[in-house]
Amino acid sequence: MTDIAQVLDLTHPTAEITVLTAMRRGATDDAIYMADNLSAADFSDPRRRIVFQAMVNVLRGVEPMDDSAVLAECTNVARDMRLEHVKIEGGYLAGLDGDPLRAKAYAATVKRMAWLRQAGEFVGWWVGKLQERPDPEQLFAEAQERMQALQPPQVDRRFVYGWDTVGGHQAQLAQRVKDAEDGKPSPFLWPWPSWNAVVRPLRAGMLGLVAGADGTGKSTYLECIAEHWAKGGMHVVYVHLEDDLEYKLDRRLARWARVPLPVIEDGRLSHQDQNAIALAQASLERQANTLHYFHAPGMSMTEIVRELESKAAEGVCQAVVLDYLDKVQPSRSQVKLFGDNMWERQGADVEALKIFAEKNKMPVLTASQGNKQMQDSGIRTRKDITGSGAKTQKAQMVAILTREIVGKEGLKDEQGRVLADPGEYSPFIDLRIDKQNRGKQGVTIRQFLIGQYFDIRDVMQRRIDE
């Protein structure tokens, strides 16, 4: 708390403890009410802030609301809040004693006290600024920003009256027209002209799925798309469950610097390679600084979504690319509920991911494995995707990758240079848009995988000398 809040005693410990008591041993509806109407920042005491956020996380997860689950989550919350020195023990939880029947009334008191503390901080800042004789224009801008923080949060309306829909939609259309006139493209266009010609950009709340057999390039597609969205200025979270961060960054550097991955891994860098890498790193700092990585091996979808929720609230998550869906681990509750039926569990995972996308109004792109038939030649459809049908049912766009195995004569380009030896997978990728709610379906795009750089190019755009 600030000195002003302490001097004026803008706290109400009884109200805060009563709210936590209701969440811990009150009715579920009361706990949901507290979670929806309060935030951890509303509590004056760091311990109560940690406990509240831990209870909210448990409530939104799959674990029961018991002390063991709350205490375990308190450790994670304290770390995220950088309050590791604050220890929450079982005795502290047991000592939270209040009347749950008064919790809703006290929730309003907690909120009012939090607002008064914020207002006190604003007054202290204002007086200090005036004593510094600041520039009026700068003071006005800073004061406006701080005053906006004092405004009550805008509630996302789930119910909209019919008479409000026309005017609101007209305003949206007017903004689209203005953006088109200004030459402002959708932030979620694709990296390749061939895709943009036939595949509509994902909209807020939509789920895209890239499917293919092992080794067809699913991860490379996801990496290219995530980087392209980030280059457009969007905050993109790339969730990777299989490859560690260092490997992902090596692949990214190979793609941007056009230096083969083995050279980067072994450190055998020529002077030319070092110059190329320096230029690539400078470009990455300028163009890809909004691409954030989340290494999540062994995590369940509940844990992943919980972290994404926090990053969305932080303002650093406007799109998600998850590599990839089949690697998500089951939670304990899913094991109890679904047993060894992993397809039912995958359906629940997809549902959780789709709900996250819709709730936070952002697109999500992920990938999935194809079955053994997807390795064969011929037209492959979403029926060849391994696992739950919910994966394709929930997705608004499904792209399927196939690559042929090169015959005994090998594969060469027009100049006779070897592109693939006999028995290897062809670098040519046939990508079928098998499902699209807002555009053509059954369209096949031919692209080219530049393996040493982990890059995808349209066939007409590729440069053989790369």
Q: Tell me the quaternary state.
A: single chain
* Total E-strand runs: 11
Query: What number is the mean pLDDT?
Result: 87
Structural class: alpha/beta
Rg, Å, rounded: 26 Å
Largest sheet: 9 strands, mixed
Number of helices: 18
| Secondary-structure element series | HHHHHHHHHHEHEHHHEHEHHEHEEEEEE
Q: Going across the major beta sheet, what is the strand order? A: 3-2-4-5-1-6-9-10-11
Helix content: 40-55%
The backbone outline, from C-alpha atoms, is globular
Which structural traits does this protein have?
466 residues; alpha/beta; two-stranded antiparallel ribbon; 49% helix; globular; disordered C terminus
How does this structure look, described?
49% of the residues lie in helices and 13% in strands. It is α/β, with parallel strands linked by helices. The model is unreliable at 461-466 (pLDDT under 50). It has a 9-stranded mixed β-sheet, with helices on both faces. Strands 7-8 form a two-stranded antiparallel ribbon. It is built from 18 helices and 11 strands. The termini are far apart. The protein is globular, with a radius of gyration of 26 Å.
Draw up the topology in text.
Layout: H1 3-8, H2 13-25, H3 28-37, H4 46-60, H5 67-80, H6 90-94, H7 103-131, H8 136-149, H9 162-181, H10 193-198, E1 207-212, H11 218-231, E2 236-240, H12 245-257, H13 261-266, H14 271-287, E3 291-295, H15 301-314, E4 319-323, H16 332-338, H17 342-360, E5 364-369, H18 390-394, E6 397-402, E7 411-412, E8 418-420, E9 428-436, E10 443-450, E11 455-458
Parallel strand pairs: 1-5, 1-6, 2-3, 2-4, 4-5
Antiparallel strand pairs: 6-9, 7-8, 9-10, 10-11
